[in-house]
Amino acid sequence: MGHVGAVYRGRFAPSPTGLLHAGSLVAALASWLDARAHGGTWLVRIEDVDRPRCVPGAGEGILAQLATCGLTPDEPPWWQSQRGDAYAAALQRLVDAGWAYPCACTRQDIEAAWTARGVPRTRHVERPYPGTCRPEAGGLRGRPARAWRLHVGRVIADLGLPVPLVWHDRRLGPQAQDVETAVGDFVLKRADGWWAYQLAVVVDDGAQGITDIVRGEDLADNTPRQIVLQRALGLPTPRYLHTPLVRGDDGEKLSKGNGARPLALDDPLAAVAAAAVVLDLPPTEGDVASSLRRWITAWRARWVDPAPPH
Ligand code: GLU
What pLDDT was estimated at residue 4? Predict the structure, then answer.
């Protein structure tokens, strides 16, 4: 295959807030297949940064579920809970560049700032940060720092990034987002002291040399934020492929909240076959191993030649 030759490193990065369910297995299977179809390396990273939401034992449980489904990583899994020093170093680098600042605002403060500007609240839509604690707006003004935020506008201006930020998804096609108006200065370190997903994922994808991110479509709108952070930290931007979601009874993304049950380990073939259906792969034949082999071939024919990383 023409595109093999360059290094391919992919990963599946579950948050251990519970065991894998039918939806999360789709992303796992897709990232595994994509790595195999490109002759690449496949990694698993347990994203246990959001400690309050992590379930004890879920990380180990997920690794066991993956192994039962024939999806074993090529290198020992990373655990984000052990990566605090790397996240701290990255934050320091952003602070030194003038691209991150401490923030004292509570959710109510953010709400009040928008209301004061006469911007009505849209239900279920999180407001972008209004910039109250930006250094040029007066900083903390004596209030205690709670979170650390990325100064998105400054990064974009200093690095000359395009507005809107455009990126390519191998399945969804060309995408664009004005990060500053859509999400604003997002959090790097949370008010409760834990590292934010955006920072941890970008630092680790960089440290692990990830060239290809294959994950669920619900994460697609995080991509522009992550690209801005990659640029700020001098990291390359991987290729992206966001996979179809499994919907729950309520039509929303399948989650524990709408009836997702942990995958049963007693019938792994049924579980991977159901995930393969979502990915439009041919029906199962034989056991898990022979089905996986067959799907690799089908996958190769489908997602050939991803555009080179930019
Ligand atoms: N840990 C994130 C999640 O489970 C996914 C991270 C990623 O694939 O970028 O939702």
Answer: 44
Which of 204, 205, 219, 255 to mutate to test ligand 1, by most ligand atoms within 8 A of the CB atom? Answer: 219
Q: Among 170, 256, 300, 302, which one carries the catalytic annotation? A: 256
Is 207 within the bounds of a domain?
no
Residue 22 burial class via C-beta count within 10 angstroms: exposed 0-12, middle 13-18, buried 19 and up: middle
- Number of folded domains in the chain? 2
Q: Is 256 a catalytic residue?
A: yes
Residues 114 and 159 both lie in one domain: yes
- 62-90 burial, b if ≥16 CB within 10 A, otherwise e? bbebbebbbbebeeebbebbebeebbeeb
The CATH number of the domain where 283 resides is what? 3.40.50.620
Amino acid at 58: A
Residue pLDDT, tens place only, 118-140: 888 777 777 889 999 999 999 99
Tell me, yes or no, whether 95 lies in a domain.
Answer: yes
Residue where a domain stops, chosen among 148, 173, 189: 189
